[in-house]
Amino acid sequence: REHLTLQIAITIYGENERLLWVRDISRLRQLEQMRKDFVSNASHELRTPLTVLQGYLETFIDMGDVLPERMHRPLQQMQAQTRRMTNLVNDLMLLTRLDGDDDRRGDMQVYVRQLLESIVEDAQALSGDKHHQIELNIETEADLMGDPNSLRSAFSNLVFNAVHYTPENGQIIVSWRQDERFAYMSVEDSGIGIEARHIPRLTERFYRVNVSHSTATGGTGLGLAIVKHALQIHDGTLDISSEVGKGSTFTCRFPVKNLYQQQEEQLAEE
Ligand code: ADP
Question: Among 217, 224, 243, 248, which is best to mutate for testing ligand 1, by the most ligand atoms less than 8 A from CB?
Fold first, then answer.
């Protein structure tokens, strides 16, 4: 075989006995890779036909008055569904990219203040008639080191979820702070909340608490899986706390060694 992957474990029994386990997991790895390649190729192939469909639908919708009245609604529905499918395909592609075996982190400076400001601006637009009060608290000027695109996806998924799952006039607080060991990006909302039993499963692909609500908001069920993987490649973790009817808080925690400033200072000290 080209690549042999072995899993080795040692079990210790009492004082003198040791059991060494060696398992050949090459086939398992190979199957896993085939699954990833399939999802990646399939979503890539779906993109072109979707773009064509979307383009024609927009043209039809723009024609407006020329078309008979009874065609307006079906066309709009077709456009909404094509958009949903495009979101799904994009999310699947992003997820397979993040789930790759290589180190995808990169070492670019990610300007957290700018990033969060632009996400909050988009969130205000998304909130629209729901008139949420969205607050941004930046308590540290520290920046992250890593991949700006995947961090943007992670943070925007959390903020947009807060908008989707918070009723009218609710409050959303986005913050960025740090202590000696960690930096925290958190999103707190006064939304519908999540029952405790769902929380451990939220980052699974396609796991949703309420499918109809999530579909109505245009969700793909992949958002939190993307967040999890994007954080993982930055050595980050996601903590979720929530109370039904009161709201939820999603906190991303990054070790200080992943901060850009600290990294520079450390290098200077060495
Ligand atoms: P979706 O695209 O369905 O929003 P996500 O992976 O982003 O998928 O989230 C998974 C599920 O977690 C959602 O369907 C929703 O039930 C729940 N959820 C996520 N964020 C929130 C939130 N801020 N408040 C309440 N429920 C949430």
Answer: 224
What ipTM goes with this model?
0.98
Could you say which residues of the chain have pLDDT below 70? Answer: 1-2, 101-104, 262-270
Atom 20 in ligand 1: residue holding the nearest Cα: 161
Contact 243/175 with Cβ under 8 angstroms? no
With CA atoms as reference, report the closest residue to 21 among 33, 6, 35, 31: 6
183 with 262: CB under 8 angstroms? no
**Can you say whether the dihedral through the CA atoms of 57, 61, 65, 70 is positive or negative?**
positive
Specify the pLDDT at position 142. Answer: 94
d(CA 90, CA 228) in angstroms, rounded, equals 17
- Atom number of ligand 1 nearest to Cα 221: 8
Give the tens place of pLDDT for each residue, 47-99. Answer: 999 999 999 999 999 888 888 889 889 999 999 999 989 989 999 998 888 88
Q: Which residues line ligand 1 (CB under 6 A)?
A: 157, 161-162, 165, 189, 191-192, 194, 202, 207-210, 214, 219-224, 248
pLDDT of residue 223: 95
Ligand 1 atom at minimal distance to the Cα of residue 222? 6
Distance 165 CA to ligand 1 centre (A): 7
pTM as predicted: 0.85
CA-to-CA separations, 57 to 34, 67, 134, 262, in angstroms, rounded: 35, 12, 34, 50
Residues paired with residue 31 on neighbouring β-strands, in sequence order: none
Q: What is the pLDDT of residue 96?
A: 87
Cα 187 to its chain centre, rounded Å, is 13
